[in-house]
């Protein structure tokens, strides 16, 4: 994986394994993802280089419990991950698995 995708996926992996150790890392159509105990993908990172895009994409699926009313974001563009971005990712992952943000 090219930079910054490599660093982004490493940082996302560190956050996910810290705040949601129950999620299992697995590939989702060749992209790094995380599944729940039933094998359903909760989130994945779509690398920018693979799709020749300007940014990577952190996406959440139906198994993620991000519901807020009748409309909510499920995908987030990422160029590079800052420490404050890591905090936001941690909050999203915790919410996605039904936890409470710190």
Notes on the structure:
By secondary structure, this protein is an alpha+beta fold. The chain has one domain: Aspartate Aminotransferase, domain 1, CATH 3.90.1150.200. The protein has a 5-stranded antiparallel sheet, covered by helices on one side. Helix 1 packs across helix 2. The mean pLDDT is 92.
Give, in order, the helices and strands.
HEEEEEH
The oligomeric status of these chains comes to single chain
Q: Indicate the overall shape.
A: globular
Structural class: alpha+beta
Q: What is the C-level CATH assignment?
A: Alpha Beta
Strand order, biggest sheet? 1-2-3-4-5
List strands and helices in order, with pairings:
Elements: H1 5-19, E1 24-28, E2 31-35, E3 41-46, E4 56-60, E5 75-78, H2 83-96
Antiparallel strand pairs: 1-2, 2-3, 3-4, 4-5
Helix pairs in contact: 1-2
Question: Which structural traits does this protein have?
Answer:
102 residues, alpha+beta, Aspartate Aminotransferase, domain 1, 5-stranded antiparallel β-sheet, 2 helices, 28% helix, 25% strand, globular
In short:
Helix content is 28%, strand content 25%. It is of the alpha+beta class.
